[in-house]
Amino acid sequence: MVVGVPTEIKDSENRVAMQPDGVVELTHHGHQVLVQAGAGAGSRFSDEEFREAGATVVDGADEVFTRADLIVKVKEPIPAEYHRFREGQQLFTYLHLAADRGLTEFLLERRIDSIAYETVQTPDGRLPLLTPMSEVAGRMAVQAAAHHLESPAGGAGLLLGGVPGTPAAKVTIIGGGVAGTEAAKIAVGMRAIVRVFDTNPMRLAYLSDIFGGRLDLVVPNRARLSAYIADSDVLIGAVLVPGTKAPKLVSRGMIASMRPGSVAVDIAIDQGGCFETSRATTHFDPTYVEEGVVHYWVANIPGAVARTSTLALTSATLPYLVTVAGEGVGGAALSHRALTAGLSTVGGALVSEPVGAAHDLPHTDPAVALARSRLG
Fold it and tell me: Which domain does 295 fall in, by range?
C-alpha cells in the first residue's frame, strides 16, 4: 500500500503523523511511504531523515493525496484539504466527528473509509491512541493555567503554589481520567490546592491511593460543583465521553461566580467543550475573557510541544498503522476489535452511533457496512 503523510495545516499544528522510524517499519512490511517535504519540520525531523529511513519525499500535498491509498494525519482534515481527497481513499487520524457535522458529511459524500484515533478502544476499555495526547494535554493545561494567572497575561496575579505565608491557588479538575490525573500530578507538584471531581467512586479510590491523600476527591452533584467552582482560581475541564460530544457541565453562571482573573482551561474543546462558555482558540491567540475569567481553549494543546507529542503519538499509532496498511481500513476493522471500535465511516456509511446521535444522522452497524463495502 502507498501511505501518504501530508504536512499538517491546521493553525499552529506542528506535529507529524509519522516519525522516520515508522517509515522503516512500514517499508520493512513492503509498503511505500510518501512524505510531503517539510512535514516533519515542526517536530524537528528533517526531510533527509525521512529519505534515509526509506520514504519518498515529494514537494506538495497534492502529490501525496493523488498517489496515496492511505492518508495518515494527526489532526482532522479541514475544509482547505477536502478537495485533495479522492473518492474511496482511506484515512487514519484524529477526527472528533461528533463536534464537526461538516467533516462528517464530507467523509460520507466522498466515501472515505476512516478510523479515528480517539475511538480506537481495546476490549478492556482503554483508548490507546488517545491516551498519550491526553497525558500531554493534562500536563500542559496546568502549565497554561499557571502562566495565565500571571498579571501580564491578564490573570489575578497569583503564583500557583504560593509562597510561605500566602495561600496557594485552588485548582478544580472536572474528570479524573487520564487528562485529569496528569493535570493533578502537575498541580500537586506545583504545590497548588487540588480538587478532582469524578462520577466513578472506584476512580476516586484509585486516585486516593496514587496521590496518598494529597487531593480533595469529590463525587459531583450540581450544588457541590457550583460551590467548588466559585472557590476556584483555576478550573480545568477534563471530561471525556468516547466518540461523542462533551457534556456541558459548567454553566455560564458558574463561570461568573469565579473571582476576576481566575483561569479556566477546557481540555475537552476538541469534542465541543464541557463549559457553556467554550469556543476554540489557537496557540497564537489562546485566550479570551468572559465573565471576568481568562479562558484558555486551545483545540490542539499538544501541538505546542510538537516533538514530544509526535514521539508519544506515533509510538502508539505505529502498530495499528502497520495493521491498517497491511489489511486496509475495512480489513483491519474486520479482524481487530480495537480498530472496529475506531471505525467511523466506510463506503459512504456512518458507523459510529455516538456521531449519528450528535448530528441526528442515520448510522449503520459496522459489520453490515463492512460487508457491503467488501461486496461492492
Answer: 131-304
